[in-house]
Amino acid sequence: MAIFLTPKAPQDSDFRLSGLYLIIGQSNAVGEALISSADVTLQGAISGARVWNNGASAFQGLVAGTNNLGATASKFGPEMKFAYDMTQAGGEVDIIKYAVGATNLKTNWAPRTGTQYITALQWIDAAMTAYRTAHGIHAIKGILWIQGEGDSNSIADSTAYKARLSAFIDAIRSDLSTRGYCTNQVRFIICRIGTTSLADDPYADTVRSAQADVAAEKRTENVGYLDTTGFTLDAGNVHFDAGGQTSIGAEFADNFI
Q1: Are 105 and 148 in contact (CB under 8 A)?
Q2: Pick from 71, 65, 60, 69: which is nearest to 43 by CA?
Q3: What would the pLDDT profile of 239-248 be if each residue is shown by its tens digit?
Q4: Which has the closest alpha carbon to 97: 30, 33, 34?
Q5: Pairwise CA distance, residues 164 & 159, whole Å
Q6: Which residues contact 189 (CB under 8 A, 6 or more apart)?
Q7: For an engineered disulfide with 162, which of 84, 104, 105, 210 has Cβ 3.0 to 4.6 Å away?
Q8: Which sequence spans correspond to the domains of the chain?
Q9: pLDDT tens track of the chain, all 257 residues?
Q10: Cα–Cα dist 104/150, whole Å
Q11: Which CATH superfamily, name and number, covers 14-254?
Q12: What is the 3-state secondary structure of 198-242?
């Protein structure tokens, strides 16, 4: 279950559900789960949900295996269940998903200098321009961050992860709010990295503790922690399988429903 460290968003109308959401991070944000192993409701199109296709410079109806931006056309991440639950609750959602496997917070996602950080903002800029041209002014309502394995293979990086994650949250919110895309208190959900025993991630426990600590310290700043304890992994023991990704998507949606 997710641990809600701040109150849920106000539930006064469908406006609380409809809008833009970001999914960013590394391979578990991309998604390595098999679509064929997912519930049948997640294996096709999700009515009322769209996803940004940067190559086509357009939002498109979200369809598993077509444009959900999984690791391959046969795979999915948290976007499918998130979109399904949000639309079933009456919302219409637009997802901007930018994630790259095997990336770290130390350099790749370093605020304003890292390649992934810079590219993510470029994707968001393009998506927001297109969205506002079609729909007028709308704000990003939530961010899901799924990353940390890339910083779990050294004691130095895992120890520094807490400070770096806190700075990342401040920077991405500042850069998005300065652009007028959201407030600087937009809901930010930290997804706990999975329980892995791989030899090349010996400091994963340090990163997991850092994620929980940052969420707790920023609880008054609308930061939440999605606890993945017990969520299932695939045979490689690092990527969430269909059940795990479905649980992540459901818990992310539960922050807004």
Answers
A1: yes
A2: 65
A3: 999 999 999 9
A4: 30
A5: 10
A6: 2, 142, 143, 144, 145, 223, 224, 225, 226, 252, 255
A7: 210
A8: 14-254
A9: 444 434 344 333 345 678 999 999 999 999 999 999 999 999 999 999 999 999 999 999 999 999 999 999 999 999 999 999 999 999 999 999 999 999 999 999 999 999 999 999 999 999 999 999 988 878 999 999 999 999 999 999 999 999 999 999 999 999 999 999 999 999 999 999 998 766 668 999 999 999 999 999 999 999 999 999 999 999 888 999 999 999 999 999 999 99
A10: 5
A11: SGNH hydrolase (3.40.50.1110)
A12: CCCCCCHHHHHHHHHHHHHHCHHHCEEEECCCCCCECCCCCCECH
- Rounded CA-CA distance 113/49 in Å is 32
Residue 3 DSSP symbol: B
**Residues 173-219: tens digit of each pLDDT:** 999 999 999 999 999 999 999 987 666 689 999 999 999 999 999 99
Contacts of 41 (CB under 8 A, 6+ apart): 84
Q: Residue 33: phi, psi to the nearest 5?
A: -80, 145
> Which letter does DSSP use for residue 38 in this model?
S
Residue 248 CB contacts under 8 Å (≥ 6 apart), including other chains: 28, 78, 81, 146, 191, 226, 228, 231, 240
- State the pTM of this model: 0.94
Q: Is 197 exposed, middle or buried (0-12, 13-18, 19+ CB in 10 A)?
A: exposed
Task: Determine the length of the chain.
Answer: 257
Q: Give which of 36, 101, 116 is closest to 73, Cα–Cα.
A: 36
